[in-house]
Amino acid sequence: MLLTAEMFLTRHLKPNEMHVCPFALPFSNTVRLEDQFRKVHIPDVMIEGSTADFSMVAGDFLEVYEDQQEEWNAIVTCYFIDTAKNIVRYIELIHALLRTGGVWVNTGPLLYHFEGHAKEPSIELSVEEIRLLCKRVGLEIEHEQFGESTYAQNMHSMHQTVYRTWSFRARKVAVNVQ
Ligand SMILES: C[S@@+](CC[C@H](N)C(=O)[O-])C[C@H]1O[C@@H](n2cnc3c(N)ncnc32)[C@H](O)[C@@H]1O
């Protein structure tokens, strides 16, 4: 996954210059072979030329970013927070990385990756528990909504998964020091 992403992001590809066949390997639930082997052209969205300061970092979120306290104005997490073994640590780090007034925008389900793993301890908080945790660490949820979303799947397959996603924007609020 990282090698592929590295190639897409650093090879200065022209729009739609390459293609991949992301649905070629699963054979179940196929209606037409052309659905299974269809090409997806990449890159469909060009990052080059954008004024955004873009970087890709490989590693454990909790380790890679721990030295960047209060360096970020915004953090976006998409289908990510449920990858945590301990979501409390993710949220505490997101809070620490943001400057006061900075925002955390999140979307995704809570399909905890380590739930039920016998050898991996895992904390699976509910939406209402995450709301409380955010408040406790100093992240004020300003807006939230539930929606429906698929994730990286073959829309022509006979098997479709739709997640009920929770999206919110939380802001790091100033703490009153007595
Ligand atoms: C469901 S994918 C979402 C990827 C992307 N945000 C998207 O929306 O397509 C979860 C991602 O989190 C990454 N991930 C899992 N655990 C991680 C960790 N501890 N630190 C950093 N990344 C992690 C996985 O490698 C994977 O790329």
TrEMBL record:
Keywords: Methyltransferase, S-adenosyl-L-methionine, Transferase. GO terms for molecular function: carnosine N-methyltransferase activity. It is an enzyme of class 2 (transferase). GO terms for biological process: methylation. SMART domains: N2227. Its EC number is 2.1.1.22. InterPro entries: CARME (IPR012901), SAM-dependent_MTases_sf (IPR029063). It holds the Pfam family CARME. It comes from the Eukaryota. SUPFAM superfamilies: S-adenosyl-L-methionine-dependent methyltransferases (SSF53335). PANTHER family: CARNOSINE N-METHYLTRANSFERASE. Belongs to the carnosine N-methyltransferase family. This is carnosine N-methyltransferase. It comes from Paramicrosporidium saccamoebae.
